[in-house]
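Try this one yourself first.
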């Protein structure tokens, strides 16, 4: 089917089935353009909790669709490709994470939203890259804390807040490969460019960055900054919105190291317009979780939403 025809059919299904399409900034441009809402992890969770739609079609990865299901258990939540996982979520298997937290009963557990529902159920509060600093700071200074699964974001927050959270040894395969050497090359060739980075990047990248923030925060920054050129250290999908919001500015993607020339998330990019259409037509693949697991995982997510009201 031609792209134009697919877009028409998706729009028809949206109305017919009272569906809402939520898309993450790392989705391919054509999916971002057809979505009802494009956002970062926090914004998409807020939308999933607030929507009146009967079906939530989540153009993102599995943990995001799972979070939507947990927040709207009575709605049908569809994910165009069930294989769209997340290397960071996979780095914290339930059993191992559970053994780890059991060793530290005096610690509160703060988990980054990029984790499975099972890991969420073991957590006291969930955070995203846009509210993590504020939520960590909401705990008393003497409260012992565990932060998982992203060690890069955890170490970044430890450095900024002076906390000493115990870190789970997990990372995102896409952000881990963003190369400092390539950033330096780009900086030398473009001395006027400002470096923006996602906090899932490794420490040397974050130290070099002029601005560190979630996808939405980077987007706002590049739009409001007077600078005209940016080096963007995150997944490539965000460039679409940056360019749309600031057409007169230039955005340079940081290539990864020599062994890998792209920093596209292989999971995010599994979703295509065609799979989106088919999943809306057939109402599958659908996210399904046990009511007990959803009840346990919902508490720390709701706590995060309450603590994020003014973000
Ligand atoms: P954001 O919450 O910043 O959108 O990040 C999501 C993500 O998966 C980053 O890799
Ligand atoms: Fe997971 Fe990394 Fe992909 Fe984000 S970019 S969904 S953290 S693998």
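Now uncover the answer:
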């Amino acid at each position: 089917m031609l792209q134009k025809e697919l877009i028409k059919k998706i729009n028809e299904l949206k109305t017919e089935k009272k569906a809402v399409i939520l898309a993450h900034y790392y989705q391919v441009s054509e999916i971002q353009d057809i979505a009802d809402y494009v956002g970062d992890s926090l914004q998409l969770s807020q939308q999933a909790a607030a929507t009146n739609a009967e079906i939530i079609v989540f153009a993102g990865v599995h943990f995001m669709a799972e979070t939507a299901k947990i927040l709207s258990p009575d709605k049908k939540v569809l994910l165009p490709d069930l294989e769209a996982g997340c290397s960071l979520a996979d780095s914290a298997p339930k059993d191992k994470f559970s053994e780890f937290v059991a060793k530290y009963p005096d610690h509160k557990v703060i988990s980054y939203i990029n984790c499975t529902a099972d890991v969420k159920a073991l957590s006291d509060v969930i955070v995203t890259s846009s509210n993590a600093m504020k939520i960590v700071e909401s705990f008393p200074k003497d409260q012992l804390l565990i932060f998982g699964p992203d060690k890069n974001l955890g170490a970044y927050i430890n450095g900024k807040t002076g906390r000493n959270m115990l870190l789970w040894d997990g990372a995102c395969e896409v952000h881990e490969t963003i190369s400092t050497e390539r950033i330096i090359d780009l900086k030398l060739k473009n001395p006027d460019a400002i470096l923006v980075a996602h906090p899932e990047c490794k420490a040397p990248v974050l130290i070099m960055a002029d601005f560190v923030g979630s996808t939405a925060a980077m987007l706002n920054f590049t739009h409001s900054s007077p600078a005209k050129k940016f080096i963007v250290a995150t997944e490539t999908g965000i460039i679409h919105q940056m360019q749309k919001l600031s057409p007169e500015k230039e955005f340079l993607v940081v290539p990864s190291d020599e062994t890998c020339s792209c920093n596209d998330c292989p999971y995010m990019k599994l979703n295509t317009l065609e799979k989106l259409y088919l999943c809306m037509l057939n109402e599958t693949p659908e996210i399904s979780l046990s009511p007990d697991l959803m009840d346990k995982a919902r508490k720390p997510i709701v706590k995060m939403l309450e603590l994020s009201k003014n973000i």
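Discussion: The CA atoms of residues 101 and 109 lie 7 Å apart. The longest helix spans residues 291-307.
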